[in-house]
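user: can you give me the structure for this one chain? tokens are fine.
assistant: on it. calling the predictor now.
[tool input]
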Amino acid sequence: MKNLIIPLFLLFTFLSFSQEKYPKNYFRNPLDIPIFLSGSFGELRSNHFHAGIDIKTQGKEGLNVFAVADGYVSRIKVQQYGYGKAIYITHPNGFTSVYGHLSKFNDEIEEYVRGIQYKKENYQTGNLFFKEDKFPVKKGEIIAFSGNTGGSGGPHLHFEIRNTKTENVINPLLFGIEVKDTRMPTIQSLKVYALSADARINQQKKSFQIPLKDLGNGKYNADRILASGTIGFGVNVFDRFNGVPNKNGIFSLEMTLNGKRFYYHDVETFSFAESKFLNLHIDYEHYKKYKKRYQKTYKETENKLSTYEKLVNNGKINIQEGMNYTVKIIAKDFEGNSSTIKIPISGKSSNVIFTSQKDTTAYKINAKKFNKFTKDGVTIAFPKKTFYKDLYLDFNVDNNIAEIHKPTIPLDKNFTLTFNVSEYTEEEKQKLYIANLEYPKYPRYYYTRKKDSTFYTTTKTLGKYTLKSDNQKPKAILLYFKSNQSIQNSKTLKVRISDVGSGIKSWRATIDGEWILMQYNHKKGILTYNFSDKKLVGNKHIFKLVLLDNVGNTNELSATFFKKY
């Protein structure tokens, strides 16, 4: 009996600690509708892990968004991209809840924020911080309304829970938010990687995809592999919640070798600072080429993610001659639904039939040092530790297009790309900008800093760049009314704007000479002014809009309308 007391006490202590760590009944749902997710926590996104959950809003905007617990609004931010209109609530239990892509705030907060916007004459507010006595809130109080602002791909609520002290994000499902999920993750494909110089896999010395047999019920088998040296695996996998078609991320990935755990990671929590290491967690080259993400079941030395637990040899498997191995890769969702791949391996050395071509160029990168190269008027400069590993860089300039390797290598820092523009006239320079040519039909403007004889930009993306000229003015078209028309019953004033060259940098709109707040929906290219913002005096009014693109081309739209209050 005495021996039973200690384990039971330890179990009780562990459960109490877990409940205290993530209280299950403290937070309510942020919406008053059934919770269906279009995005899961820790999901693999472009260059980062998803920091929250995306809650579907039934394809609508304007649903009530509630404070999930007592607290106070500690921060508000309105930005064109990112989270769009976002509100942060600090709670007394040490956590902060975050609500993003909102259409508007409640009346009190909306009035305050609009005052800031009109004072700054800018839609974007930057971070607005508040003390606890400014906007206290109660659990269940309406704080805002759902929307589609910022970098949202459709109406939904982005919801986060953070540790107030560290700002680390935590999986909201750990706090008791319930999402029905009885479906097992779907494993789409498997890759094997030769990780050491002496590695051989089926007489190959390179990575390749391994065919899988779907046995049903979440079980998959791979054909036997003949290998030697150090190898690793990567898996392309997604999960689905009940009742929704979206492909979401998994919660954990585990690999065992002959029954022993060799690799494990989960998405319980992480910091924003480490999120960039996603690019080392996945097969980045494969993703950039084919837009398919393989999560590695081994850890790169330079990878600083904290989501890994008790790795053996960083998940890298050393295959010995004559030995047999069984590898299992287990993917689980938050509810514990799992899918498993079984991979038999026999240790057998072999002569190489297929091998990767050795890459050597005149531009060798020492990752620990500053590297700078110049060719035909183009200079590239890489700070120390921009690259994770030493490599030979492809660098060529042809017809004023600088090709800086392929965009298949992740970088840790920005590098500087400089073009010599001394051969251009001052008038020509005014219209020039640096553009990325990843999609040649749609050159992408990069913020271009201009000096007398050089233009430069900073970026973390390798690939093709060139100088482009933009001599066209931005365009603006009135929507739903024409000049000299009465719009007495209209609640809003809308203008469609566009620019085919460097892109729109800014806009300034006025009615009767006074600045007005126009919200830009960049997904539709529409500026919108809400007439409820301020009362107009008189019946006849003059609307003016001045557009500026990124090289200084301007255009002005002017219209007269009639509206009486």
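assistant: here you go. Confidence is low (pLDDT under 50) at residues 1-19. The two ends are 83 Å apart (CA to CA).
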